[in-house]
Amino acid sequence: MTTSTILLRLAETIESRKNADPSDSYVAKLLASGQDKILKKIAEEAAETIMASKDNNKSQIIYETADLWFHCLVMLTHHGLTPEDVLLELERREGVSGIEEKRSRSTH
């Protein structure tokens, strides 16, 4: 196993837990709780990531970013999306000026 495929492997695991018993699976419980609960967890993890960064605590930055990414993967699953969808968008933007990319959003 390589680290370059961890997002895809995690997404597969999250997908496989969608129909699990919520009393046995955190992911199943979170998905069963609905979008608002998922978004609340993302906001919480984003705030914790920000605080770790403000504290310049590298190990906490890594830990909290992992939590944030995990909960973003749960959100993607909730919407029937995958990390591949996001990675394709990042690939589309690669080499495009941030200013150009932002300008193109106003036409979408």
From TrEMBL:
One of its GO terms (biological process) is L-histidine biosynthetic process. Pathway: Amino-acid biosynthesis; L-histidine biosynthesis; L-histidine from 5-phospho-alpha-D-ribose 1-diphosphate: step 2/9. It catalyses: 1-(5-phospho-beta-D-ribosyl)-ATP + H2O = 1-(5-phospho-beta-D-ribosyl)-5'-AMP + diphosphate + H(+). GO terms for molecular function: ATP binding; phosphoribosyl-ATP diphosphatase activity. Keywords: Amino-acid biosynthesis, ATP-binding, Cytoplasm, Histidine biosynthesis, Hydrolase, Nucleotide-binding. GO terms for cellular component: cytoplasm. PANTHER family: HISTIDINE BIOSYNTHESIS BIFUNCTIONAL PROTEIN (PTHR42945), HISTIDINE BIOSYNTHESIS BIFUNCTIONAL PROTEIN HISIE (PTHR42945:SF9). Belongs to the PRA-PH family. This is Phosphoribosyl-ATP pyrophosphatase. The lineage of its organism: Bacteria, Pseudomonadati, Pseudomonadota, Betaproteobacteria, Nitrosomonadales.
